[in-house]
Amino acid sequence: MSGKLMAAVDALFLLSMLLPKRGIIYVACGAWIAYLIYQLKRTPYRAVKIINGGLIVLAAIMMAANLYFMFRQRGGV
C-alpha cells in the first residue's frame, strides 16, 4: 500500500510540473505531508521518524515559499 501512495504523490508532483500555475503543487505538497505523517506513525525506527519529520518541515517550507511567490507575482505582497 505504501508504494501505491508514494506513486500517487509522485504523479501529483509530475502533474504540477506539466500544468504549472494551477495550484496543483499545493495538493502535491499536502499529499506528500500526509504520506510522511502516515509513514511516521507506522515506523518503529527513531532515525526514520527524525528524517520524515525533517521532510515534513521541508514540504511545509516549499508550500509557504510557493504561496509567497504566487502572491508576490500577482501583486498581493
Short description:
This protein has one domain (2-73).
Explain this structure to me?
By secondary structure, this protein is mainly alpha-helical. The protein contains 3 helices and no strands.
Mean pLDDT: 90
Number of separate structural domains: 1
Shape: flat
Strand content: under 5%
Share of helix among residues? Answer: over 70%
Unreliable parts? none
Number of helices: 3
Determine the oligomeric state from the structure. Answer: single chain
Distance between the amino and carboxyl termini: 41 Å
Structure characteristics:
3 helices; 83% helix; mainly alpha
Topology:
Layout lengths: L1 H17 L5 H19 L3 H28 L4
